[in-house]
Amino acid sequence: MPKSNVGSMKVLLLGMSLASVLASSAAAFDINAGVSKESGPFDLFKFGFKAYKNGQKEDAVEAYRYAAEKGHTGSRWALANMYAYGDGVAKDDFEAFKIYNEIAAQGVEPGSEDTGFFINALLSLANYYRRGIPGSPVRSDLAQARQLYFQAASTFGVAEAQFQLAKMILAGEGGAANIQQAKKWLNQARKNGHAGAMAVFGNVLFQEGQSVRGLAFLTAALDHCKKNDCPWMQQMQEQAFSLASEEDRRVAVVLAQEFAKGAD
Length: 264
What we know:
Layout: H1 6-22, H2 41-53, H3 57-69, H4 73-85, H5 93-106, H6 115-131, H7 142-155, H8 159-171, H9 179-191, H10 195-207, H11 211-221, H12 230-243, H13 246-260
Helix pairs in contact: 1-6, 2-3, 3-4, 4-5, 5-6, 6-7, 7-8, 8-9, 9-10, 10-11, 10-12, 11-12, 11-13
């Protein structure tokens, strides 16, 4: 099963954070308006965002850097993502890691508009710690990755964090394996709409002997899978389907239709 990548987090949090920040502006920022390094951090951020949307990524980077120096969290986050993806700058995971770490270290106030940026920083750091960054001081630290996923999963209820935490617990990565704890997080994540968690949850149930319920969750998950995740989920479902009895298959297909509609 391939690991989810940081890119999915970027999409998840763009809507939650960036849109809410920009919504406070009464009108779109004029890309041709005079903005300098002495401008306020939010004006610089708006300029950087507009420049980025217009394909002027060098201007965006410069504006984000000035805004980040003035403590603007959204600009730090945008800059970190650009380094993480090599988007408008040379790809530099260690530079991205350092900026995400700054965001995480500053914390977040409950209900703050910076919450989405903070969560994204936690998830990005967890992914980096999970695999390490070659050629940098950042080494793989599974215990730290697991703790960061736990923070995002428990404090903020992020489905992707719950899913990744469950997978680490199942595999005994960064701590002891515990199938009951893993099932708890998988169940929570699938209730939060995570198709991958639904599939893995179903597979665990199937392996425990709950053939009908497990196969039903595996089948229902295929109706919601993302393009990159569908192959491994389909392979898992087909393997379980081949092992199930004809009667279990029939009942599971009917039950899967109910699960796909949100039934428990």
